[in-house]
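Weekly modeling sync, notes
Attendees: AB, CL, MP (scribe)

Item 1: holo prediction request
CL wants a bound-state model with copper (II) ion before deciding which constructs to order. AB pointed out that an apo prediction alone won't tell us much about the pocket. Agreed to run with the ligand included and paste results into these notes for async review.

Input as submitted:
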Amino acid sequence: MTNSVPNRFTRSCLSVLASLALLGVSATPERQLAAPRAAVGLEDSLAMPPVLQNISRVPGTVEVNLSAAPARLALLPGHVTDAYAYNGTVPGPTLEVHEGDHVIIHFHNSLPEATTIHWHGLHIPAVMDGSPLSPIGAGKRYDYRFTIPRGTAGTYWYHPHPDARTGYQMAMGLYGAIIVRDANDPLPNSLPEKLLVLSDNRFRPDGSLDIPDPKSLQGQIDRENGREGNVLLVNGQVMPVIGIRSGEVQRWRVINVSAARIYRLAIPGQTLLHVGDDGGLFERPREVGEILLANSERVEILVRGTGSPGSKTTLQTLPYDRYDPHTRPASWQDTLDLLSLRYSDASPMTPPALPSVMRTVAALDTSRASARRVIVLSQELINGKTMDMNRVDIRSRLGATEIWEIDNVVTMDHPFHLHGFQFQILDRDGIPEPYRSWKDVVNVRKHQVVHIVVRFDDFPGKWMFHCHILDHEDHGMMGILEVRPPLTRRRL
Ligand SMILES: [Cu+2]
């Protein structure tokens, strides 16, 4: 297994970063307003993004201020990069809430262009979803208000979703994590918890962001593949270190905020306990050797310190071919390092007891499905059409359970995301999904057919469904679902 890094430029940065990491210095933004929380562990250089400060004193209410603004940040050491940032940091601050909380976000758009904030994966009213239908103009303010439903504890994230500009604004630095906590979390509180926001970005040698002219050759390749970066970042840092003690078990929440890169996560020589997906914990942990994490997906994993004191290993992303053969980059077969996991010299501790059952994930009742729909994914098109903000593509009723067949008819993967509603995957190419979980995105592989079941239990309105490769989404690979209130009987 090779330990290659993306390119020459990254290699030169890595040596600088490795030195900084040893000194405990991280590639944090220049204008960071809140200090990052130091992660647990003697040798940790991985910094957690700051947590949004709750300014409400009302129990059960989380009220925060959030701005999006241009910023000049040290995204790479030795360079200052013109970027966009939420509250001055990349990643933006983490929104931490509990199930049942009333959330108020006082948002100020200080960007020179319109934006929105989409609360990816949250089950909230359509008008609060931050879809392209609800832009917030340059200089404008908007209060997002919603309640976190019970039973939705998990890892989510937020990002801009303006019409045709999502890829640009996210490449500039706009994304942040959301953690929804359960007051009675089934996993032990004693597990050290880490948040890993995985991103990549492409920089020029002077440290500026490399976002090519769409008409250039690279621009056209990006439009096909989705823009991939030459630098891989975890919480904005290149190859940070997580310290672990032999025998310890850590809980990692991992989010893929990359525009197009799919991660195939593995730690050589050990297995992982996969305990949760987009919409929270499973019923039972799953022992796995690797995890595929497509764009916008999240996983929760338990990392067990099976190594010996003083040893080290690496979280890697293994080769994964999501590409059309004509535009597949030569580097696709490289194994890339994401972070270093270093064991302390302390003697092994007794591993904590872990529950064999975490919660109940009730199956949606497919026998009640009132509609079966076919969604055909081709390059930049859904059901042969490009996005039209004034068109409704699918009309459903509140309370309906539906089965959607998502049919990828082309030679590259498309991660399919539905706003507002968590669904369950029934099968992929006829093979039943081996475990049940709540999902809001599913990676539909080349020429694959996936069946999902979804129930529109609340929140009428217009909802987006789209490919989460941002270049595809921005070029119209999106449609609109309208969930309408139930028919009411006319009074006689
Ligand atoms: Cu796509």
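Recorded for review: The first helix runs from residue 8 to 22.
Action items: CL to compare against the apo run; MP to circulate these notes.
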